[in-house]
Write a structure and sequence with these properties.
4-stranded antiparallel sheet, globular, Immunoglobulin-like, 3 helices, alpha+beta, DUF6266, about 15% helix
């Protein structure tokens, strides 16, 4: 059953036959219900499903970051921040041939925007965790010392994300990320993203691969 809004000429909410009506971003939207398909799935379709599963699995734990990181990028688009991140990463951050698809972490993105990112970034394991260093580029176009730096780290060993939201500022030039004994010294993928004071601007995320410490 569907409920009409604003009379017979308005939008509706609920299911009518093979379509569903709902409100999104202040707009009345309808979409068709999925249809059953008994045809054998082609290799291209299977590859698409595997790629979707890989990117969904990687992005799902990062929803808080994704909402902030792609917020500006979707302002003029009829899609959510998460859907844009999903689409972008599915197109750009998958490598290999089905059924051996993998995420190409160097092309994986957790944010997209016009705020200048960090420069000359390095990352290395220390006694207690991961130390990041960079050059302070305060004064570049729209780059301020108060820009907030967030970092997320993916451990290949534990297959988990570790989040450091608003951990430090652009002008700090260095920060330490504490690591648990379960993943300290392991191979990790590090992603850095800056947000301006007040959240008006966001930077493209930056990736750094840190190899495991040899034992």
């Amino acid at each position: 059953m569907a409920i009409l809004r604003n009379g017979p000429n308005g939008g509706f909410s609920g299911k009518v036959g093979s379509v569903v009506g709902y409100k999104w971003k202040g707009k009345d939207v309808i979409r068709g219900l999925p249809r059953k398909n008994n045809q054998p799935r082609s290799e291209a379709r299977l590859a698409n499903e595997q790629a979707m599963k890989l990117i969904m699995g990687a992005l799902a734990p990062l929803k808080v970051f994704i909402r902030a990181g792609f917020r500006n990028a979707v302002e003029s688009l009829d899609m959510t921040a998460f859907n844009l991140a999903l689409s972008l990463n599915k197109k750009q951050a998958i490598k290999g041939e089905y059924p051996n698809l993998e995420i190409e972490w160097s092309k994986f993105r957790i944010s997209q925007g016009e705020l200048p990112g960090l420069e000359d970034v390095t990352a290395a394991w220390g006694d207690n965790g991961l130390t990041l260093s960079w050059r302070d580029n305060t004064g570049a176009a729209n780059a301020y010392r108060t820009d907030s730096l967030s970092v997320v780290v993916y451990s290949q060993k534990t297959e988990l994300w570790y989040n450091f939201l608003n951990h430090t500022s652009r002008n700090a030039q260095q920060c330490d990320l504490p690591a648990h004994e379960k993943w300290i010294g392991s191979e990790v993928e590090v992603f850095l993203s800056l947000v301006s004071f007040g959240g008006g601007l966001v930077s493209d995320s930056m990736h750094i691969h840190v190899p495991a410490i040899s034992t």
